[in-house]
Amino acid sequence: MKKFVQILVRSIQRWLRGLSFRTGIIVLVLCIPCYIISFAQMALPISSTAKGILWTIFFGLAKCTQYAGLTILGTEGLKRLKQIYRPKPDA
Fold first, then answer.
1. With the CA atoms of 15, 17, 20 and 21 taken in that order, what torsion angle do they form, in degrees rounded to the nearest 10?
2. pTM for the structure as a whole
3. 63, 30 Cβ separation under 8 angstroms
4. Is the dihedral of CA 66, 67, 70, 75 positive or negative?
5. Residue range(s) defining the domain that contains residue 36
6. What does the pLDDT look like over 6-56, one tens digit per residue?
7. Is 86 a member of any domain?
């Protein structure tokens, strides 16, 4: 069973790495609303059990989208992002 899970994880990682840079950025941006919703729902007038369940779901979604986005981008994508946001030297 453990070997099956390892093979499954590797195949998912391989598939995610094959996606485009733009897709990686979109998936990374999707983690922001999930984080916001996970904490903002605490202000709703619902039971604490429901709040805990909603927090777990949305915080988990935020983490999943964050790690999936980073896997899609990979190290080359992160280098590309750093170059985009690096301050331009004054001429």
1. 150
2. 0.70
3. no
4. positive
5. 30-75
6. 999 899 888 887 888 888 889 999 999 999 999 999 899 999 999 999 999
7. no
